[in-house]
Structure to design on (250 residues):
């Protein structure tokens, strides 16, 4: 626990056999109460390796649900286990688990409802090997998003995130995409609902075994991000409100 709050780390996995051990080894189990591994119908031995590592809570999707669908399972399980703080960490070892204590503290202090591990703060993205075209796309999309969403984040596209239980209980993330744009929809919903978002500089590593989407899917993702940003703008200006922004109890 951290400041009396139960801390759960969720690992949305797909073919993570080569990197899961390295990721899991750096998770600070002195403060982390539970680890949840959700295997999205991997074709490798991700689930079997998770068992060997001693991960108690493993869920395997028999059919691939996609990145967003994987996260939905992660968060439902974390809430079921009584998590007060939930940190989503990719098991591909692209983000360091060593930042978990800091991110959890930012939530447990009550200062923030969501914390993002930013690759852009501190110039870590290019140093870590992010492809130049992805860096440029990241900066362009973030600029447009900040304008339309009326926020000031350094990036919206990191996969390293911490959430309070309150946010997971009140944001309608089940309405979100099952694909990669899920993350951007969640941020948009969080800003729209008035929750507080914090950021921390996070180094990142790009290497062959780390997961990454190809150029075609990157374009699809970028168009999805612009769609979400426009929906947010229309909702906050009162022009039109998408299902994305409906409260859970409505």
């Amino acid at each position: 626990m951290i400041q009396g709050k139960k801390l759960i780390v969720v690992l949305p996995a797909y073919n993570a056999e080569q990197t899961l051990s390295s990721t899991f080894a750096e998770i600070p189990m002195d403060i982390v109460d539970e680890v949840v591994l959700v295997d999205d119908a991997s074709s490798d031995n991700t689930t079997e390796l998770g068992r060997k590592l001693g991960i108690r809570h493993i869920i395997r999707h028999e059919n691939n649900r996609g990145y967003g669908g994987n996260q939905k399972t992660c968060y439902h399980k974390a809430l079921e286990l009584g998590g007060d703080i939930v940190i989503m960490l990719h098991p591909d070892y692209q983000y360091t688990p060593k930042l978990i204590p800091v991110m959890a503290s930012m939530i447990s202090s009550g200062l923030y409802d969501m914390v993002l591990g930013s690759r852009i703060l501190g110039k870590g993205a290019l140093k870590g090997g992010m492809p130049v075209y992805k860096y440029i796309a990241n900066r362009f999309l973030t600029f447009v998003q900040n304008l339309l969403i009326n926020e000031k984040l350094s990036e919206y596209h990191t996969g390293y995130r911490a959430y309070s239980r309150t946010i997971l209980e009140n944001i309608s993330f089940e309405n979100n995409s099952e694909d990669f744009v899920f993350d951007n929809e969640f941020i948009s919903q969080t800003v729209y609902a008035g929750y507080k978002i914090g950021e921390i500089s996070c180094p990142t590593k790009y290497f062959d075994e780390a997961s990454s989407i190809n150029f075609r899917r990157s374009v699809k993702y970028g168009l999805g991000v612009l769609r979400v940003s426009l929906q947010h703008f229309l909702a906050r200006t009162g022009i039109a409100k998408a299902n994305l922004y409906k409260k859970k109890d409505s």
Observations:
- Residues 7-245 form a domain with the Spore Coat Polysaccharide Biosynthesis Protein SpsA; Chain A fold (CATH 3.90.550.10).
- The chain has a mean pLDDT of 93.
